[in-house]
Amino acid sequence: MDLNEAQDIAYSKIIKGLNEEIIRKISEDNDEPSWMLDSRLKSFGIFKGMKMPSFWPDLSNLDLDEINYYARASDISDSNSWDNVPEKIKDTFDKLWIPEAEKEMLAWVWAQYDSKVVYHSLKKELEDLWIIFEDMSLALKNHPELVKRYFMKAVPSNDHKFAALHWACWSGWTFLFIPKWIRLEEPLQAYFRMNVRAWWQFEHTIIVLEEWSLAHYIEWCSAPKYSEFSMHAWCVELYVWKDAKLRYSSVENWSSNTYNLNTKRAIIQENWHMEWVWWNLWAWVTMLYPCSVLLWNNSSSSHISIAMSSEGQMIDAWAKVIHIWENTSSEILSKTISAKGWKSIYRWYLEIKESAINSYSHIECDWLIIDDWSDNDSIPLIKVWNSSSTVAHEASAWKINEEELFYLESRWISEKEAKTMIVNWFLSPVVRELPMEYAAEMNVIIWMELEV
Hints:
The chain has 452 residues and is α/β, with parallel strands linked by helices. It has 2 domains: 11-296, no CATH class; 401-452, no CATH class. The chain has 11 helices and 22 strands. It has helices spanning 20-29, 34-49, 87-95, 98-104, 124-127, 136-142, 144-150, 161-169, 402-409, 415-431, 436-449, and strands at residues 11-16, 68-73, 108-113, 116-122, 132-135, 173-178, 188-193, 200-201, 204-209, 214-222, 230-240, 245-253, 258-268, 273-281, 285-294, 300-309, 314-323, 329-338, 343-352, 360-369, 375-384, 390-399. The strands form 3 sheets. The protein has a 10-stranded mixed beta sheet with strand order 4-3-7-10-12-14-16-18-20-22. Strand 3 (108-113) and strand 4 form a beta hairpin. It is globular and about 70 Å long. It starts with 10 loop residues before the first strand and ends with a helix.
């Protein structure tokens, strides 16, 4: 099965266009408390009053009135048995190896199809540790005060126009809470499938790690290809407290007619380390801006990313790191492959406050250009407000070397195999940070979809 193929699923609810009545309907369907409805309506008002951000790529082809803002597949209920998931939906997630991955290595797996969670599974020993890992809508019912404590605190609704739209229309996805002292070596994993034609998905993630805890969370997203454009406006809020460590891995494998907008932000306290590992593929326009706020002494973060696309597609991505207190450190590593006229802009914003004495940051951005007409830009913005901190910055762009190709081909390696080997070598610093099953899938995608 091709992941770019849509599944013929019956939907009991598909809501096109957006107004206050629709927002109230979304909140009613999810049986939300009154404060959440008030938050949605306030965010919708902010959205209507804000202008498009001036630095973003062209979004003129996206008609917001033609987008489906809410969709729910009919006759589907949340199941903890893979056998009970409908066959058409199961076919999609079988392609992503959910059951096999769960059996072999994963602590928890769950899957969301459009606006509805269709499957979840948690090991009993993790439930006994008071770990909470639920759909956001369910967590809002079961743990309302805990959700309210963190909801919209890292990313306010007035952050930008589409953040406000996200808060007005968000639906489903992940709430993860790891109590003090709990250290999970096995990854927790979630899968999302956007299947509705001309749809805009607003899934939301909140992850909280209390003091001295450890976790690795992985998200995988995909969408089929239609003639109409779709939009993905995800928001992620991460809170990890003293002496905790979180690795957040994200693999987004979108179709070439998807506008992909993500707002992701982590609040990092004392002695905490935050690792962002993300891999972005094929969307028509991608705007991806993960941010780390190093709030207390000795906190640190790393941003490790891969982006690939082709045929006139565009990515506008950056890492944003703000050093606020003493002895903080950050590292940014980006690998981008350009082919068939792709436009890539990599921005990063680094600010080291006056209070962040003895801090350090290293930034490295590399591009591999496959053809003669793709375009890559690097736009750094670096602000350092004290003289005791250090910043190292480097960027490079290069094409596949003909001598390297000749050497490999002289060893009876075909041209395509040789180019694929060079691409894999270029990506290796990031790939080795991914779980094994994702690294294997990446090799397949490079071979089958990137015609180098």
